[in-house]
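Propose amino acids for all 426 sites.
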């Protein structure tokens, strides 16, 4: 397999066979990056076979599968991490080499080492058409909302800062408060990373938003309100969730009026983040209280739809409904097709890198839980899938914190806080 040398760090190539990996090793490469999704054509070796071929000749190997029209910043950053982890020159491939070179060139532009206007000429000099990279950059430049994601690997959660580039006002969405269930230790490393980003970008926090009371991690909303003074908000139906879990926890003192947040959003409510207009969509199904925040050209959908290769959210929690989730998804899919959808989790199917951004068009086209399925088919599929899933390991820990806006239990007489775990409740 002939590779094209880009510079001393990277070369690109088309699809190699097993012998090609031996040739890469003989040519002095330290690693291979496979940017091609499995199953694109018959006879394609695929991730598992390529990983084995790389190991057999002592090459590092990374799997960063992308489709050209659906490349996101998460893919670009994963490609850069794969280059660094190889600890030497790499050869990156797809079917022809174009996607691999696109990922590299876009990373150079995002990091300021290449100007957007130079991308196509850069590709032409190497024999590749990077018009797709140019279009990606043009589309990015026209986006109203700037979105920065923070992936939390312990719970596979994604936290967001969405900002107006003109006014530098921003909102924090679904922040995570660290919790280790083995030791009972809490921490603020994830939330502090968000604050550090906000400080470095010169942003001002206008809102701290949760899409729903989370069952797999603690919300850092209350902590961040104390640090920023910004108001907290969630969907108005959180009161239904409070009533439900007040009984499960046998918690007579729990206030169930939503007063733990500064604002409760009803379906159709609007608010502003600087010059960005935001709208709230009630999106039940995963929980009774789930909402979607449509902010500029972006929609934060959390546990409704995931990236297309990951399907949709579970509906077997107390108050969940597969039918309700179906209708919530249809409302999301009625947004303009170019709307960017930002999910709240990514469980990395097939061992790929974390991804969290898609579009309405991509969901309609390739999500197997959506494309070509009616409501009855979706409900049957979702319920069958849910029966195979264990409950989240932090569910009983997290809900008693999150139905109070991220507030930890009050300290007892000895100064320590204690969680209450109901036995045999679910």
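Proposal:
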């Amino acid at each position: 397999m002939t590779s094209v040398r880009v510079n001393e760090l990277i070369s690109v190539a088309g699809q190699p066979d097993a012998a090609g990996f031996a040739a890469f090793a003989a040519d002095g490469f330290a690693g291979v990056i496979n940017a091609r999704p499995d199953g694109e054509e018959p006879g394609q070796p695929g991730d598992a076979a390529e990983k084995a071929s790389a190991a057999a000749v002592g090459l590092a190997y990374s799997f960063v599968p992308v489709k050209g029209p659906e490349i996101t910043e998460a893919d670009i950053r994963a490609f850069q991490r794969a280059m660094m982890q190889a600890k030497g020159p790499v050869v990156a491939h797809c079917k022809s080499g174009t996607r691999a070179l696109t990922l590299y060139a876009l990373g150079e532009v995002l990091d300021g080492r290449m100007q957007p206007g130079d991308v196509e000429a850069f590709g032409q000099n190497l024999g590749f058409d990077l018009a797709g990279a140019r279009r990606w950059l043009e589309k990015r430049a026209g986006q109203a909302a700037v979105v920065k994601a923070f992936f939390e690997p312990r719970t596979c959660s994604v936290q967001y800062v969405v900002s107006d580039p003109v006014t530098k006002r921003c909102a924090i969405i679904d922040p995570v408060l660290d919790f280790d269930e083995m030791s009972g230790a809490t921490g603020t490393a994830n939330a502090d990373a968000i604050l550090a980003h906000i400080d470095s970008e010169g942003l001002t926090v206008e809102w701290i938003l949760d899409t729903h009371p989370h069952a797999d991690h603690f919300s850092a909303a209350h902590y961040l309100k104390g640090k920023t003074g910004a108001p907290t908000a969630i969907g108005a139906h959180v009161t239904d969730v409070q009533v439900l879990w007040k009984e499960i926890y046998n918690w007579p003192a729990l206030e169930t009026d939503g007063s733990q947040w500064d604002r409760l959003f009803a379906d159709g409510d609007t608010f502003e983040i600087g010059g960005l207009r935001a709208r709230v969509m009630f999106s039940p199904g995963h929980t009774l209280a789930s909402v979607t925040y449509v902010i500029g050209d972006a929609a934060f959908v959390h546990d409704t739809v995931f990236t297309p290769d990951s399907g949709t959210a579970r509906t077997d929690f107390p108050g969940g409904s597969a039918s309700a989730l179906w209708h919530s998804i249809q409302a999301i899919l009625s947004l303009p097709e170019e709307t960017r959808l930002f999910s709240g989790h990514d469980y990395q199917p097939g061992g790929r890198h974390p991804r969290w951004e898609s579009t309405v068009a991509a969901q309609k086209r390739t999500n197997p839980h959506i494309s070509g399925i009616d409501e009855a088919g979706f409900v049957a599929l979702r319920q069958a899938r849910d029966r195979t899933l264990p409950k989240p390991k932090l569910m009983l820990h997290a809900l008693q914190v999150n139905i109070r806006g991220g507030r930890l239990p009050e300290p007892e007489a000895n100064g320590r806080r204690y969680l209450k775990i109901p036995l045999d409740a679910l």
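The chain has a mean pLDDT of 96. The longest strand covers residues 146-152.
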